Amino acid sequence: MTAPPGRDDQALSRVPDRARHRWVSVAVQRFGQTTALSQLLLGATLGFGMRFWDAFAALTIGAVLLNVIAVAVGVIGQREGLPTAILSRWTGFGHAGSAVLGLVIALSCTGWFGVQTGLVGVALAGATGVLPAPVWSLVFGFAVTVIAACGVRWMAWTAYVTVPAFFLLLLWLVLAEVNDVGAAVSGPAPGPAIGLPTAITLVIGSFIVGAAIAPDLTRFNRSGWDVVKQTVFGVTAGEWVVSLAGVVIAHGLGTTDVMGVIGSSGGWIGALVVVTAVLKINDWNLYSASLGLVNFFDAVFALRISRAQVTVVVGLAGSSLAAAGIVHQFSHFLVLLGVVFPPVAGIMIAEYHLVRRWHNEIISTRPNVPRSAPAWVPVTAVVWPASAVLGELLPFGQSSVNSLVLAFALYASAGRLDLFQRRTRKATSREMSGEATAA
């Protein structure tokens, strides 16, 4: 499968200036990613254990920290116009590391695509009473696959429709289910207290993976300032709108069972809440999965395959798994995969903004992609897994933040100690000589 030039959203090349989008278009899609059902559940969890304005403070502080991470990584994607997996070849991971990262992204995003597609199948089956949930999962999965295969422009129009629709449906849900919103805002928390530090770590953990793979989206921004604007709007507004709705639901109904509340709203309203919430993030799950696989096949087999064709194959596979109910058995595995993403952001930020070992290679070749990359980076092979494990084991803080900070600090320290020079130079030289021989 050879990727058609100019028709594959630059899956293996830089996004040219003519293909960049207005920041509002990108911001709406970022907003769509953060206004998911998981954020509604997060808000209900916070609201069950915190007063409204305490939860607002936790969401705001968490959003600020997420913005810092997403902007620091996203600016790299905007400047270089490359998706996360390809970009990682020159931001600390090398050829082999980028292949592993691409595969992990594909597995994680495909898994979550299947989980959420199965959720929609159940909702539509309950609303219609016509077809069983597996059939609805296949229908919905196929629709999302078509959108993602057609590319980011179709996904942008999908966000334009589903984001305001979800917002209006969510507003209706809150007003219909909560009798006295004013009392819910001013009243005490109905459950056991949650401290502010714990709440902030929950907020950060809810979107740290999205922040870590920000270049998949920000490569379509026109400037670094656009990255800042769309990130602040998309992440902060997403946390406030959806999560605070969850807080109000928890206060007004005294429960964290968001899906139960949606189900009790009855019929098509509840189903549409689920459909609009999932559609605007599931197309990006599938899109990032396809980018990861395109990079994997290019890095491992030197095979350039069509992102659109990969999207169709992965979408059909994920939909089939959702229909069979298999993906729900892998939820814990998917959560475990999420642990590996925060160190990726820490390493990329440290390499691009501080260590700059391969900075000249990547900026001097614009608007083309560098012809060679280090075969592998031994420092990253140690720092990446070590940071993920230590981040989970530390008895304080939040594991995602811990692992990101550790990865940044360890990689930056390795740069200061000049631990890259000998091994990575030889790896690059071998690859370049191999290319020369092949030529």
Describe the structure.
The protein is mainly α and 439 residues long. It has helices at 23-34, 37-49, 52-80, 84-87, 94-128, 133-150, 152-177, 181-186, 196-212, 215-218, 224-253, 258-264, 267-301, 307-324, 331-338, 341-355, 359-364, 378-393, 399-416, 421-438.
Question: What kind of sheet is the major sheet?
Answer: none
- Assembly state (oligomeric): single chain
Overall, the morphology is: globular
The residue-averaged pLDDT reads: 89
Provide the structure class.
mainly alpha
Low-confidence stretches: 1-6, 429-439
The H/E string reads HHHHHHHHHHHHHHHHHHHH
Radius of gyration computed on alpha carbons: 22 Å
SS field, number of helical segments: 20
Which strand-content bin applies to the residues? under 5%
Q: Helical percent range? A: over 70%
Q: How many beta-strand elements?
A: 0
Compute the separation of the termini in Å: 22 Å
Describe the structure concisely.
Helix content is 76%, strand content 0%.
Write the layout of secondary structure elements.
Blueprint: H1 23-34, H2 37-49, H3 52-80, H4 84-87, H5 94-128, H6 133-150, H7 152-177, H8 181-186, H9 196-212, H10 215-218, H11 224-253, H12 258-264, H13 267-301, H14 307-324, H15 331-338, H16 341-355, H17 359-364, H18 378-393, H19 399-416, H20 421-438
